[in-house]
Design a protein that fits this description.
Blueprint (H helix, E strand, L loop, with lengths): L1 H25 L18 H6 L2 H36 L6 H9 L6 H11 L6 H7 L14 H26 L3 H9 L4 H12 L1 H17 L2 H7 L9 H10 L11 H32 L1
Helix pairs in contact: 3-7, 3-10, 5-11, 7-10, 7-11, 10-13, 12-13
């Protein structure tokens, strides 16, 4: 047991703790990732630059979009996943096939998902454009500043819904049937059984799903990058800013490529993710205790 624990701690240290410390150290330097350029210790200059007036509007917009992206995608995903999981847990004909179909988007790569939905929402000849054309509307979809973030959130929910459904299905199958039989004897309706039996018994599954959804969406940038590009202000996320700064600069902020500044942004993101995750975990744990 001690050997297993030591090996697990070693793996976590090598693959998680060491890189995290490395990023923290880099955030205090001006490293740019180009060969033969000297690296200088700049202290908190990258952090002051992040909160400076020159970058404040851009970074505030990225934080706001990130929070909207995380909250909306997580809440909608949990609600849909719970409803679909309850439906697929019944004696439905062909439910095994339905489960496979629901989970299928999860195994697709981000590039494939981006290609599929870029074709569907192609403003010139996509199916969505055809449907909107019936009503005399010709939206730009991912190019529309008012629609882009909502569409990216929709694709995010579609692509990750299967994982939440699997977690809820596992939780549903662990609920004793005696509870439902007792509820039937007491004359409980389907809605009452869902609210008073299913949801309370699924509290640990809800906690796990919410945390996975929040952490994943707060750190996700791939879909926004593939669907709308790195410089669309409507879908600018904090994680996308890290990618842009670390691997190519950002035309939106006018700053050049800098791994040091990207590391500083990643530390800010780490703090935001940590605070939100711990707060949500504490709240959900208290709710579990009450239920």
């Amino acid at each position: 047991m001690r050997l297993t624990f030591a090996l697990g701690a070693l793996v976590i240290g090598v693959f998680a703790l060491v890189p995290a410390i490395g990023v923290l150290v880099l955030s205090f330097t001006d490293i740019r990732g180009l060969p033969y350029l000297p690296v200088h210790w700049v202290g908190i200059e990258n952090y002051t630059s992040f909160f400076s007036a020159a970058h404040f509007d851009y970074n505030l917009n990225a934080i706001k979009n990130t929070l909207v992206y995380a909250i909306v995608s997580t809440v909608v995903q949990i609600a849909l996943a719970l409803g679909i999981a309850v439906l697929l847990n019944t004696k439905l004909r062909g439910r095994t096939f339905a489960r496979a179909i629901v989970f299928m988007p999860t195994v697709l790569g981000v590039t494939v998902i981006g290609l599929i939905w870029s074709l569907i929402f192609n403003p010139n000849s996509g199916p969505a454009a055809t449907v909107w054309g019936w009503f005399g509307v010709s939206p730009a979809f991912f190019g529309d500043q008012h629609m882009a973030l909502g569409l990216v959130i929709f694709v995010q929910i579609w692509s990750s819904l299967g994982i939440s459904i699997v977690i809820f299905l596992a939780g549903l199958q662990g609920i004793p049937t005696d509870l439902y039989e007792s509820a039937d004897i007491d004359g409980a309706s389907s809605w009452q059984k869902l609210r008073l039996v299913t949801v309370p018994m699924l509290a640990p599954s809800v906690t796990a799903t919410v945390l996975l959804g929040i952490v994943s969406s707060l750190q996700s940038y791939q879909l926004a990058y593939v669907l709308t590009g790195p410089n669309n202000s409507a879908t600018q996320l904090l994680s996308l800013a890290i990618f842009s700064q670390g691997f190519g600069g950002s035309a939106s902020t006018g700053t050049s490529q800098s791994q040091g500044y990207a590391s500083a942004i990643s530390i800010v993101q780490f703090v935001i993710v940590g605070v939100i995750s711990l707060a949500v975990l504490a709240y959900l744990r208290r709710r579990e205790a009450k239920l």
